[in-house]
């Protein structure tokens, strides 16, 4: 059946196959050009990969000496993270502090009595007072849930509300302030007052805050050295006063004594020494007559030898405040601390008085070199809010954070204190019984990560250059030396290793890459003298070298320029030589505040010409792109020529088929004519 010819279906002479065979021969030059385009694209990809590796190395090098370099970063380490932590900025200095947290800052949180879930809140204007700010919410009426949502929408991030399922079928309304500090009490006004009383959150009470004036009528001096001026009581060393009170205390009283103290200390230890008495003053006399003056002989008053008194022994006693009670007993209040400005002191009286009546506050300055001042004394109930309302169930009461820093008491309205130590923000977590040490030091882990990143990017670039510039040659083992270059890179995945092997020797003999490799090896092995550590000049001295593990014997992989890190040596150097390590990577030697030498600086300067706009990598890829464009145009020309050639062959073979068909038709006609003539004869 293969020899059967069907016109229009099968060519008599297999023209199609013949045309394809001829076109394959004609297409050989075009295939060569196309293959060259693919090779050029592959080379462009290799150069682009080299550019990416160089960019990564440059970025890690620049990071080591830029404005954001890790050598200027600081971290804070707390001796007890559950008590306090800290965050730092680059402005923080390396130093240590000791803190004791006496009290954390809190905000007011008030809880109502359990209410039926169906309880409705009437429409009205509900006002909340946070310190000096007033928040007004117009509520159109609805359920407790709708009222809660209205507070949360209009609370301005200062007041919020929530419903708690304290008992089954009921809900308790929790209203809380979002602002901590004793000065930011949560108060109610308008329709909020009636609602708070209605749901058992507040009760009306008497005003519980009273100021105790300091004047000549309210202060009893035991000597005349204490001074009163504009409501401030000043006691020089050795003086004492008493301020009468008459406060009856109960065991459940919340009253607090609040006063301000200020001290002026003479820390030089210089005391005023009495001078010898001047003795009697004896006037001199004279007589004048006739213009002649005669002076009497001066009188003499011999004085006994004077012996100055001994200087008083220095005495420090910060327990200057005491409470006296009606039964004749007394209790010293906790010691105050030195402060150059008035500092508020607070004392809860219920724990101290234990149900006794307080008759007076006594101030005894037993110090020999310190002046103590007292001002603004008041008795108050810290739980009560403005307007005479007292919470029935205060979950927490607004108060300041109180800490001591190196023995100095400090008070702030927030648990995040950023104005105490420059560049350091303290985060107060809980009260501490023991002092907590806070160390601000260099971020050695961040520095170590940056150095490791630099070394890693250096090695990846060096590996890329070694693979591309390697020479293909075999050895007695039957394994090419090129493949061993890839096998040495144990950190590569199988896919990455296969990709590396596919570009072995792609740029063999390329002088650009070979020069780059040699210059990089020179930079990382050169000495860089430092100002701070004269004996520290090499990367190898901080554990970074081509043989950091100190392995003996011949190892060809260590001749390829890869860097290794001895972490123990690096960690030891980072403990106390961070400034010198910084200078090894980048240093300013001419005092213009700009780095001009160092490993990282020189690496950046070397590779900059490769990856900058119009640099070496850009020129390499643009040259390849130009060649690709030329070959693509040539391919287009060859495609047109091949299409025309194929069309010509098809026309020629079609004409041949047509001519042969006509010849067959003519032969058939002649045969038929001959047969007809024979039949007629």
How is this structure best described in words?
The chain is an alpha+beta fold. The strands form ten sheets. Strands 14, 16, 17, 19, 24 and 26 form a six-stranded antiparallel sheet that branches. Residues 1-6 and 474-479 have low confidence and may be disordered.
Furnish the topology, listing elements before pairings.
Blueprint: H1 15-63, E1 74-78, E2 84-88, E3 95-103, E4 109-111, E5 115-116, E6 120-121, E7 124-130, E8 133-139, E9 142-143, H2 144-154, E10 159-164, E11 170-177, E12 186-190, H3 191-198, E13 202-204, E14 210-212, E15 220-221, E16 227-229, E17 232-235, E18 240-248, E19 256-265, E20 286-289, E21 292-295, E22 321-325, E23 330-332, E24 343-348, H4 349-353, E25 357-364, E26 370-380, E27 389-391, E28 394-396, E29 401-405, E30 408-412, E31 416-421, E32 424-428, E33 436-442, H5 444-469, H6 481-487, H7 494-502, H8 511-525, E34 544-545, E35 564-565, H9 567-576, H10 578-585, H11 599-611, H12 616-680
Antiparallel strand pairs: 1-33, 2-32, 3-29, 3-33, 4-11, 4-28, 5-11, 6-9, 7-8, 7-12, 10-11, 13-27, 14-26, 15-18, 16-17, 17-26, 18-25, 19-24, 19-26, 20-21, 22-23, 22-25, 29-30, 31-32, 34-35
Helix pairs in contact: 1-5, 1-11, 1-12, 8-11
């Amino acid at each position: 059946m293969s020899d059967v010819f069907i016109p229009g279906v099968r060519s008599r002479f297999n023209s199609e196959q013949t045309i394809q065979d001829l076109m394959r021969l004609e297409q050989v030059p075009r295939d060569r050009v196309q293959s060259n385009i693919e090779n050029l694209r592959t080379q462009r990809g290799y150069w682009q990969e080299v550019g990416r590796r160089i960019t990564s190395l440059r970025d890690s090098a620049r990071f080591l000496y830029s404005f954001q370099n890790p050598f200027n970063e600081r971290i804070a380490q707390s001796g007890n993270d559950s008590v306090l932590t800290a965050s730092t900025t680059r402005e923080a200095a390396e130093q240590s502090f000791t803190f004791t947290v006496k009290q954390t800052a809190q905000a007011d949180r008030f809880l109502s009595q359990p209410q039926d879930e169906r309880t409705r809140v009437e429409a009205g204007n509900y006002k909340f007072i946070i310190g000096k700010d007033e928040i007004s919410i117009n509520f159109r009426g609805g359920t407790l849930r709708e009222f809660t949502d209205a507070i949360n929408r209009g609370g301005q991030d200062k007041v919020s509300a929530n419903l708690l399922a304290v008992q089954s079928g009921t809900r308790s309304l929790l209203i809380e302030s979002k602002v901590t500090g004793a000065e930011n009490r949560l108060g109610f006004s308008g329709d909020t007052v009636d609602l708070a009383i209605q749901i058992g959150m507040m009760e009306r009470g008497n005003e519980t805050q009273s100021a105790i004036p300091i004047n000549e009528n309210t202060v009893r001096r035991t000597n005349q050295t204490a001074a009163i001026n504009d409501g401030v009581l000043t006691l020089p060393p050795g003086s004492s006063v008493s301020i009468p009170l008459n406060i009856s205390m109960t065991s459940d009283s919340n009253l607090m004594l609040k006063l301000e103290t200020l001290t002026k200390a003479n820390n030089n230890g210089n005391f005023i020494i009495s001078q010898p008495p001047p003795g009697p003053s004896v006037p001199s006399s004279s007589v004048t007559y006739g213009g002649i003056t005669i002076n009497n002989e001066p009188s003499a008053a011999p004085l006994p030898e004077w012996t100055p008194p001994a200087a008083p022994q220095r005495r420090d006693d910060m327990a200057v405040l005491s409470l006296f009670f009606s039964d004749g007993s007394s209790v010293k209040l906790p010691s105050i601390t030195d402060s150059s400005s008035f500092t508020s002191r607070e004392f809860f009286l219920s724990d101290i008085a234990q149900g006794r009546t307080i008759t007076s506050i006594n101030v005894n300055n037993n110090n020999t070199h310190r002046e103590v001042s007292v001002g603004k004394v008041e008795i108050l109930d810290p739980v009560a809010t403005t307007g005479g309302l007292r919470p029935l169930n205060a979950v927490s009461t607004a108060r300041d954070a109180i800490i001591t820093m190196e023995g100095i008491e400090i008070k702030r309205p927030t648990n995040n204190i950023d104005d105490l130590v420059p560049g350091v923000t303290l985060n107060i977590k809980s009260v501490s019984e023991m002092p907590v040490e806070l160390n601000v030091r260099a971020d050695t882990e961040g520095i170590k990560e940056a150095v490791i990143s630099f070394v890693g990017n250096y090695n990846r670039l060096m590996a890329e250059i070694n693979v591309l510039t390697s020479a293909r040659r075999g050895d007695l083992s039957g394994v090419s030396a090129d493949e061993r270059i890839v096998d040495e890179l144990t950190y590569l995945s199988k896919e990455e290793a296969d990709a590396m092997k596919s570009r072995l020797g792609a740029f063999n003999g390329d002088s650009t890459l070979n020069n780059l490799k040699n210059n990089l090896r020179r930079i990382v092995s050169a000495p860089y003298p430092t100002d701070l550590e004269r004996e520290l000049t090499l990367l190898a001295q901080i554990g970074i070298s081509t043989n950091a593990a100190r392995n003996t014997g011949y190892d060809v992989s260590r001749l390829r320029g890869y860097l290794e890190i001895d972490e123990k040596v690096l960690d030891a150097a980072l403990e106390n030589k961070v400034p010198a390590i910084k200078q090894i990577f980048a240093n300013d030697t001419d005092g213009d505040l700009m780095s001009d030498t160092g490993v990282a600086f020189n690496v950046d300067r070397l590779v900059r010409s490769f990856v900058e706009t119009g640099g070496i990598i850009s020129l390499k890829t643009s040259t390849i792109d130009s060649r690709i464009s030329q070959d693509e145009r040539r391919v287009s020309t060859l495609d047109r020529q091949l299409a025309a050639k194929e069309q010509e062959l098809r026309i020629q073979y079609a004409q041949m088929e047509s001519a042969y068909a006509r010849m067959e038709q003519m032969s058939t006609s002649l045969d038929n004519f001959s047969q007809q003539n024979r039949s007629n004869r």
